[in-house]
Structures are given as C-alpha cells and as structure tokens.
User: Fold this.
Amino acid sequence: MESKYIRSSRDKPCQVMLEGCMPENNSVEFMYYNTTGMRPLDIQGMYACINCRDIINGERVVDPPYDQDFLIRKQMEAVLRTQRIMHRNGLLGCLKL
Assistant:
C-alpha cells in the first residue's frame, strides 16, 4: 500500500531539475533519496521525472557526465523542495518550516 507521501507525487512537477528534465510530464513519481544500507523514511524522498531518475540511478548518461557530489547535492535540494510542497499541502502538518 502506498503511503500518502508517495501518492502525493501525482500531478506534481519534478523537483530534481537535471538536464533534460520533464517537470510537467506525467512521468513524475516519488523517488527515495539514495542512501546506503537502510531504507529511507517516506518523507526522505523527492518528486522526480523519469529522465532525472534515470540519470541519478546511472541508467542514463549525459555528456559530460555529472559529478557524483553534484548529483547528491541535487537530490538533497530536491528532497527539501519536495518536503516544502508536502508541508504546504498539509502532509507534514506537525512540522514547522
């Protein structure tokens, strides 16, 4: 069963915004922040289009390739933007932003 955070990605723009991003495309889904060793919490995710997801997951290569530190920073920024959208839509109501 999908959580309310995962369902919240429907009809939202991509928050990763890498080269070739499709922000208004129906391909935007909830993507977890890539961590090692443990599954992140549902609030530790971002709204990402298929193009940005593929670049982050290494399934699509851009020329010149992105530095891994740059991709990590872009993911962190996307998580923060996604959390702000969630908060604005009442999904993180108990948190003060």
User: Anything to note?
Assistant: The chain has three helices and two strands. The first strand starts at residue 29 and ends at 32.
